[in-house]
Design a protein that fits this description.
By secondary structure, the chain is an all-alpha fold. The protein has one domain: Up-down Bundle (Four Helix Bundle (Hemerythrin (Met), subunit A)), CATH 1.20.120. The chain is about 80% helix and about 0% strand. The chain is built from five helices and no strands. The chain has helices at about 5-35, 45-65, 70-75, 80-100, 110-130. The protein starts with 5 loop residues before the first helix and ends with a helix. The relative contact order is 0.16.
C-alpha cells in the first residue's frame, strides 16, 4: 500500500473541515426547529428560514468545490495549491453562512462569501486544467 501524498493530506484536511461546517449548519437548523417547534418548512420564522438557507446554500456549493481537492491531489498538484483552494472555499462558505445567519438581506459577509466561493471555483478549475496537461 502506498503512503498518502502531502497533497492528499491537504485535501483530507479541507474535506474534513468542510464536513464539520456542514454539520454545524445542520445543527443550527435543528436548534431553530426545536426552538420554534417547526417540523417542516420555516413557518415564516425569519431565523429558521435563514438557518435553512445557510445550510442549503452550503450543501449546494461545498460538494462541488470539494471535488477539486482530491482530484488535484491525484494529478500531483503541490499541497499549497490544494490548501489555497480549500482555504478560500472554506472562508467563503463561513463568511456566507455568518452573513446569511445575521441578516436575510444583502450583507457584506454574504457578498464576500459568494465572491470567495467563486474565486475558489476559478482557482480550482484553472489548477485542474493546468495539471491535466502532462
Amino acid at each position: 500500500m502506498e503512503a498518502a501524498t502531502p497533497s492528499a493530506h491537504a485535501a483530507a484536511l479541507w474535506v474534513g473541515l468542510h464536513l464539520i461546517l456542514l454539520l454545524v449548519l445542520s445543527v443550527l437548523v435543528v436548534r431553530q426547529r426545536r426552538k420554534h417547534q417547526v417540523v417542516l418548512g420555516d413557518a415564516e420564522i425569519p431565523e429558521l428560514a435563514q438557518a435553512i438557507r445557510a445550510f442549503a446554500n452550503a450543501t449546494a456549493y461545498v460538494p462541488r468545490g470539494l471535488i477539486a481537492l482530491p482530484v488535484l491531489a491525484v494529478v500531483g498538484a503541490p499541497p499549497m495549491v490544494v490548501h489555497v483552494v480549500g482555504l478560500v472555499l472554506f472562508i467563503g462558505r463561513v463568511a456566507h453562512a455568518v452573513g446569511l445567519s445575521r441578516s436575510g438581506g444583502s450583507s457584506i459577509l454574504r457578498s464576500a462569501g459568494v465572491t470567495a466561493t467563486w474565486v475558489a471555483y476559478i482557482l480550482g478549475a484553472v489548477a485542474l486544467l493546468f495539471y491535466a496537461i502532462p
